[in-house]
Amino acid sequence: LVIHSSFGIRINRAWGLALRKRFCRKFNFELQAAALEDAIILSLGPTHSFPIDEPMRYLSSGNIADVLSQAILDTPFFATRWRWNASIALAVKRFSGGSKTPPQFQRSNAEDLASLVFPDHLACAENISGKREIPDHPLIRQTMYDCLHDLMDMPGLKKVLERLENGSLNLVCKDLAGPSPLAEEILSARNYAFLDDAPAEERRTRLVRSQALNTPEDAVSLGVIDESVIREIREEIWPDAENMDECHDALMVLGGIMDKEAESCSWTELLDSLASTGRACLVTTSASQVWVAAERLAYWERIHPNLGKSPSIEAVGQIEEIDRDQAMVELLKLRMQGIGPTSKLELAVFLGVPDTDITRSLVNLEQSGFAMRGVFDQSGQQPQDLEQWCERRLLWRIRQRSVQSRRKRISPVSINTFMKFLFEWQGLSNEARHLRSEPEGLMEVLAQLEGVELPATVWEDAIIPDRLGNYSPQALDMLCSTGRIVWVRLNVPGHCPLRSSNRLSPVAFVPRSALGHWFAHSRSAPYDMDGLSWPARRLVELLENGGAQFFEDLVNQGGWVASEVRNGLSELVGSGLAVNDNFEGMRSLYGKSLSKRRKRGRWSVNPRDDGAGRWSLLNRLGQQGELPESSMSQSGTRWDSVEYIAKCLLRRYGVVFRRLLDQESSCPPWRDMLYCLRRMEARGDIQGGRFVHGFAGEQFALSEAVGLLKRCGSRQVERVHSINTCDPLNLTGIVIPMDRVPMNRKARLLFLDGKPVAQQVNGETEWLTDLDFESKLEVSKEASNSVRKARSKPNFVHPM
Q1: Full set of structural domains in the chain with CATH
Q2: pTM for the whole thing?
Q3: Sequence-separated (6 or more) residues with CB below 8 Å from residue 648
Q4: Most CB atoms closer than 10 Å: which of 143, 323, 546, 717?
């Protein structure tokens, strides 16, 4: 239940707490609630159903002070304000024996004081009946005043309720099938907005299904359930009788069938046969005629003592323990399970009783969680403003079938259109490249390519410049040095005795806080200290004892030459054990002057030329494919890691399916990914459906990606795109049905309208498909521009 109220967080907090208290008293259920500046949310259970405007009558300007005073006692707000007032009144010592009293001791001392002044506040709930009497104590009065007038605005809330009562403030109620765009913020509210003590990971709002609103028509359809789905469900649950026994079972299941329904189903002959054998009869009420089985006749006789029967038969079975209201409830249960959404008027005609009796029975079913009320069927068979009722299990089936219906309405696109979408999604067009600015634009690019392992030199030669105009290496070093991004080798091969680093060594950019997620699913070969060379083992010892250190400090402490330090660092980086504060450390390992300095046999260390930061160890030593404990504390459980990587893949590709995982080197199994993706779809974070032709299995996409995918499918303008063959968008042989174009850091792959048409290596173009002269001319022009941009790149290498 979301209340859009723009009165500020102080009034909304008081309103939400008071409503939560009234709900708890009415339904005997502790609700989760939250409040922000412009919204209040109450998380209801699956058995809660009531008229949508009813909660506004739970509170009035006359009882708000009493309800809110009782509600504030169960919140952390009161305990916090009590400790503060007790401390400033010197009732709780903040210093003892010349030293400050620890906070936990101050808290327990404040609770001890509260047990003396206000015993009911900490009393056992089983021993409290009714309202708690608030004592007339100065500290209690001050605490209640602070909570009601400082933390909240009770006088302001009282004025709002008075305006609702006198009609100067209108209340608009809407029953929607999904949250509106205005409710998205309160659904994802942080801990500071919570009005209860439930943790963030256990909030019911995480299960709310958010629908994609790409157009105004999508927003209009929030309150509409697909008519075809309701029609299908009704056809499925209505029994199909072909003989007398099946017809008798239908009477038992439905509690009775109206004569008009029997005629439409062509059951008249079967019912006459049942009547002739005494197994059924036609009962007549003041509003209708209903065919009833002999086993259900006792319920009808309990409702109508002078019931007309044709033929007159005796009821089978006795129901002496139930009264008239219970008999109506039982028949309503049977009826609602077989007809789907219906109105109170239809049920009253079926049973032949007044509306007041039906209303009382339906409210009983609602409070027990059997029935839900709302406006479900808008096909025109029911008045759109008439309240409808539906059995809860059937309503859940209707909602689930609606999700499947929305999936079917998504038109899948071709592979070429999907590639055009990926170029737009990752910003490979000239317009998108120049719209991004450093450092946020670089952070956006690295976040989209998080976890992708590529040769170190390709990142700054092709991958980043293709997505970011006017790229400078200083921006990447700044992101690394501030700790937002760390470069690391995730997957380490096991066949090399000594794993060294060079310009072709794969590295990935990952947020430092997410290292544990990627380490949990990286495919690193097991190793031990004995497998490292002597310089690498010596460096591990220095870095473990002294922490992060500069290159010059490592040379001075070890008492060795710089070349040995460099070789050891290269081996540690290649083993995924060491990183540098910025990417300059990796550049120094594959500098252009590397071969010249090797000939001298000795490395000079000049602080003015050493632009690299500090070297440090990663917490991977001794791990055999398990998540390090330090990373586990930051990353959570294994399923948290799977969900995090699933979100990264969605951010990278927009659309995720099984085949795309063949491109990834550090990725959990698809069976685990599928479980998390289905959970995300159930929460409404993503959409499921068939988005791309030619691939089996389930597919999932972000809501914004679906809109862009549709626009790319309708766009008729042909565009040429050029990427490096090491680019993660080189999906040849994986998504694109053709032979795999091998990775070559000096080669470019050219696409025309999403289709790979040429490969350029060392200035020579190799055509992959037949094109006309104009298309070849356009593709060749783009290829020459790519070569010109590559040659104009500045030299980023700064050797040690």
Answers
A1: 2-207 (no CATH), 229-405 (1.10.10.10)
A2: 0.57
A3: 450, 451
A4: 143
